[in-house]
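INTERNAL AUDIT FORM
Audit reference: QA-55
Scope: verify that the stored structure record matches its stored sequence.
Auditor: D.O.
Record contents follow.
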Amino acid sequence: MASKVTPWYKKKRVSQVKTDYAYDHTKCVCAKQQTAVRTSSSKSVSQVQAQATVAMAEPAYTIPAFRQRTADEGTEEYQRVSTKVGKGLTVIQEELHRMRVATKAQVDSIAIQREVRNMMYKKTDVLDDIPKLPDFLVALRPHTVWEKTPVKLFCTVQGNPRPIVKWYKGGVPVDPLTAPGKYKIENKYGVHSLIISRCAVSDTAEYSAVATNLHGTATSKATVTVKRASGSGESCQLGLVPHLTEIHPSKLEVSMLDRFFVSFGVEGGSISLVCTLVVVPDLPNLPPLAQWYRDDKLLKPSKLAEMSVGGGAARLTLPHLAKDDEGLYTLRIFTKDGTTEHSAYLFVSDADPSAPGAPGAPLSVKAYDINADYVLVAWKPPNTVNEVAITGYFVDRCESGSDTWVQCNDAPVKVCKYPVHGLKVGHSYHFRVRAVNSAGISRPSRKSDKVTALDAAESERLQVIKIEGKYDIVIKDDDLEGYVTIPGEPTDVHASEIFKSYVVLSWKPPSPRGRAPLWYVIEKCLAGTGAWQRINTAVKLHSPRYPVFDLQDGQKYQFRVYSVNLYGSSEASEPSEPIQKVDEDGTELPIGVPSAPGQVVATRNTKSSVFVQWDAPKHLKKLMGYYIDGRIAGSKEWFPCNHKPFKHTRFVVHGLIPGESYTFRVQAVNVYGLSEESQESSSITVEPALATPSAPFGITLLSCDGSSMTLAWKSPKHCGGSKVNAYYIDKRNADSLVWKEVNLAAVTERICTVDNLTEGTFYEFKVQAANMAGVGVPSAPSAPMKCEAWTMEEPGPAYDLSFSEVRGQSLVLLWKAPVYTGASAVTGYLVDMAKKGSSEFVTLTQEAVNRRYLQVTGLKEGETYVFRVRSVNAAGVGKPSQLSEPICAKALPGTQEIVAGVDEETGDVFLSFEACEICEMSKFVWSKNYKAIGECPRVATTDKGRTSRLTFSSPNKDDLGSYSVVVTDTDGVSASHTLTEDALNTMLELSYAIRHPIIPLKHGLNYEVLEKGHVRFWLQAVKLSSSVSYRFIVNDKEVTSGEGIKISHDVATGVIQMTVDHFTRANEGTYTVQIHDGKAKAQSSLVLVGDVFKAALKEAEFQRKEHIRKQGPHFSEYLYFTVTEDCTVMLACKVANVKKETSFHWYKEDDEIVPETPPNVMSGACSLPIPLFSRKDHGIYKAVLSDDRGKDTSVFDISGQVFDDIINALAKNAGASASELVLQCTPEGIRLQCYMNYYTEEMKTIWKHKESKIASSEKMRIGGTAEMAWMQICDPSDKEKGNYSIEISDGVQTHTRSFDLSGQAYTDAYEEYLRLKAAAFAEKNRGRVVGGLPDVVTIMEAKSLSLTCTVWGEPTPEVTWFKNEQEVASTEHTKVTFEGGKFASLVITKVTPEDSGKYSINVRNKYGGEFVEITVSVYKQGEQIPEPKLGHPKTPAATPASTPVPPKSPAPPSKTPTPVPPKAQTPASMRSQASTPASTPIPKSPTPVPKSPTPTPKSPTPSRSAKSPTPPRFMKSPTPPRK
């Protein structure tokens, strides 16, 4: 079949219009081959091409404006030519004749050349018919190379047909795909070569080239030896190592593999752009020469842009992203063929705002016009989409090397320029900017580059003279000016910047200037007034720039400048022209925001991008660029498409959702801000631009019978925006260069049988795909395939391996059955898997599967795999299929799964799937068990936008199985769902409920008793409509609203209720509610009889009484008890509805209690304290509240469990406050005491000795007081040594305190006990006055006085009387007697005034004594009886019963020995010890009598704690009084 060749002059000129701006493109500066457009005589193909031509009818070329002519210009041209026609007619005829002769000669020459060419072709055909074995004209030669250097093996072979050459290493075929970049096989002009890019020692082997054709095989072999330099890791001799430093990087052969794509980053983050490379030769010390560009500006390595080349990759890392980094990034690599470059756009979005609604950060902050103390800072405004408009900017500065930022302007500046003055000469600064709006302040911009404040005029005053090109002589203008003191005046005073906020004045420095330091003084005045006023009084200005801020709106000003140095001031400069600030609209000068851009047009670009172009604004006004915004059609929320002003009027918007529709708008940007928005573009759906499809690939042989071959191939990776509807196959002999068409009519399937082949011949095939746009490029030629009949018994290869439902850990592999089945039918398949680049395959199926799909699990997310399938029949395992395309185990972004559900309206059971991407040609293909469903009465499919639904007509068990869906013309969007029996039954129940609706109830019919005794019957539905109807039925009779019954409903809450005001015994029975709401119904019943009804009736009556009770004063909370911190029990209650006249009374056992503080009912709460609570407080307490409106009573019974609860509450408080056990010695024994807030014997307290419980006995006595619990060991012995503890239980928790009574502690305590026991015995037997003496005696003169008392002591005490501290001797006048050792008396006969005075008696024995004083007053007859003198005691100085009350915290004791008093003491010496033994307690009970708070120095009883081992904390009195 001969191929048709179309003459060049008949070929159609098809121009492809491409945008001159691309974001993701690859350019290679190399020669490009042009692919001829296939023509076909097929009628169907011609029709398709005609349709495509009509669909794409648009001008391929537009005449430029400068080539177009108007009608008038055409008429003039015609007249000018017509006037010269006559003159040139003869010349034209002669020229025409000459051209005819030349053309004839040229035609004859072409005919001769064509004849010669045809004869040469015939000669070649004759030579081609002669068979010839393969023969190597140039054989392989051996090589010895150093490690890490390249080597090239080449040979030349001839033969007829042309031989096929294969390369082997040690007998194993060389496969370049196993080590990308390692091997390269070439065949150019009959020279076959194998290049090993970077040799390793392991590459040492015998390499062979095997040439094969129909007539035989020839082999050429050579050995490659790779040597390693001596002394690994050491320096080598230069003479032994190949010298490679002379190779320039541009001489390397570099190819790009994986390229970086359009990327998206966020401010503050980081990103890396990586492109993998194959470098030949790959030398570690010679990386390729690579350059990175952003927006066509060369980037240099810095902290903000880190670059690296090596290891097979070129990398650009941006560690600190800012919006300044947004732009088109280009990687340009120099190769031996020129340059290779790749570009992609990087988008950088705003970080989260510092406050909700705050604007984004400004960008591109730069400093201009740098002077000694002045810098002009400029920046670009951020894009504001949904935020509030920006009201101004703050400029900050920071000295280099510091982290302290200082705000430069007090008020926000409205334009994107600000003059910063007041800088320090020679200091370096950075600047940043923050935007402000009503919601807050933005994040700061990226800081500017470092600038140094220097006087720019200084460099202009230097002149450099070169001498012979070697020496530079620098001359200052100061040297040329001579000696100048006072400088000249400045010149050219003008406004370099005019804005609403400020005006920047500029001028030229004076000349001459002088050598002294120079500064400037500025004056201003209203134009025409001449009233000059200095404006920089506080600033010493060194730069010829100065910003003026305080100018009034609408006024024109003039300015002049003086030069000043230490010698004086110059004359004033010439005044400037009148200057006026710009108003907010910018109408004074032609500045302000630009006008809105013109028409915006959006066109298709790729499946995730749109090409947007627009007309420039009519008024540019120093345009910075454009911001593009977009929104999804139908949405109100706009999103920014770019974050850095874009300078061109065309832009590719990336990152869009495939298949979604968008609208776009554009804003122009300049120093004043953003313009008005342009008009919105028309809505456009994100679809790829229409183009021809890419080349098919993966041509594989499925069967051969000796005269025909069955081929299959894979679909193009890119369909070109239109469905592929045709394939065309070409073939050629493997030894020929001429391709021949196989089919004129289009093949619609990806399988074709090629007939009329010659058996034994090698053939190559290529395939082209076609769509509406035309025929695409052909595929790469297939590997040579020999036409040889297949006779093996095993089956042929499976084919068309494809993937579905690719996820992070799983995927589904599908394939088609082999065309060649072998000797018997195919019974199953084996599936093998390997990682990409590996030759180690793992069989996934233990046994052959009989289906043509397999779900593969256990994959590693992000890993790439390849698969192959082997068919099995009775004869064995057949040929493996062609390897699948490498597949990465990673789900597409936004992937959804199939959802099973039931339609809420119709009740239909369905499976639904929403695609994450879709295009115009996409279709949803549903399958069951991976077999396409197609037209089936059991199911129906409906597609709407990105969603497809598979609806079951009558679902049952036959519909169980695995359902999958594939979206065509996408990157593998698919999903599956297994419909199980349980899931189907659940959905069928829900479907039945929807088709036979029942009103769902949240709560069935129930009742509740309300406050006044009303009873409410109610139920709640999940949802009710406004048209709902219902009725209540009681005991088979419908009840309606009326007297005493209210029926209502609430649609919002779904509640239906009936309220019965007076609930009585007649209301017993069955209650039912019937509801109708549209088609739905519901019914609920409540049986209220028997005990249930009695309980409801009782509650209703109680609530009715409660309501009546609450009409007067009543208790809102009845009596309850609490325990305070000091362990006082409080009975409390709360009252309500009271008034001042309301009375409140407390009662116990009907006896009224009158508390110290009267109850205050108006406070709402009353309480009764019960201090020192114990069993005596048992009883019934009652609180009565009454007034003229009624009476209410609350009763509280403190007994039983209530009493126990109170005791436990007291025990909890007491246990928490309990101290550690304290040792206290008494005359009777050793006592352990535990102090606490309150103690009563009703508390559950247990004393233990060595973990054994102690019972109260004569030996171990247990007791306590209100402030402590104690346990006394009477007459202790060594048996009582050990650990003692007390446990206080409050019913929930047990509080334990312990004391170790052993060792030294026991010894000291026992000694103290013996001492106290002896002291008690002495106290008991000492001498004392028992009674009979008065304190004061008043007697009349001449009467007799008898002072008589009873004394006691063992042994019998001695008695001595004193008067005024002088011993009284017995006389006739004063008689002293002591009878029977018991009665002592002093008798004075006939008293006289001299007998008045202070008498005393001293009673004493060896254990001690007592001293008692009596005051005697004698008065004369007739005189008034004198009163006793103030301060005289009325009781004896010391009595046995006088027990001083110690304080809670006694004074520190002092260890004092017990003195033995002498036999006789004078009253003067005894005054300070009137009662010596008074401080010694007299034991009358187990509770000892405590000592005096201030111990007497002469006390016979030492301090209690003289030898106590316990700390002073426990020096309390053993019997403290209650406060």
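Auditor finding: record pair retrieved intact. The CA atoms of residues 613 and 650 lie 4 Å apart.
Action required: none
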